[in-house]
UniProtKB/TrEMBL annotation:
Residues 12-22 have a biased composition (Polar residues). Keywords: Coiled coil. It comes from the Eukaryota. Residues 41-68 form a coiled coil. Residues 1-22 are annotated as: Disordered. This is Uncharacterized protein.
Length: 99
């Protein structure tokens, strides 16, 4: 596409060599600018994809952490229930011994 513009410009301004020279020079200045823009866009896309990957990784880590917290909370609750049961058993044994 860019090459087509240079050729088109050369044909249109072919009337004098100075006009052709200026046209080519102008296009040679424009081409790096367009390439820089394309490179910048590609860089932005890669950065966006990296951010998306990082976000997905964080979501997965967050879900794992929440699961761990719930698991720890359940373990604490189970330990508490077990301790209560043991205390009740001790109390029941003491009553049975009294009888």
């Amino acid at each position: 596409m860019i090459g087509g513009r240079v050729k088109e410009s050369m044909i249109l301004s072919h009337s004098s060599s100075q006009e052709s020279t200026w046209s080519i020079e102008e296009h040679l200045q424009v081409i790096p600018s367009e390439l820089e823009k394309k490179l910048e866009v590609e860089k932005m896309r890669k950065g966006k994809n990296k951010v998306k990957e990082d976000l997905n990784s964080l979501k997965i880590d967050y879900k794992k952490l929440r699961l761990s917290i719930r698991t720890v909370g359940l373990e604490d609750a189970l330990e508490s229930d077990l301790l209560e049961s043991r205390n009740e058993n001790v109390g029941l044994r003491a009553r049975v011994a009294e009888l």
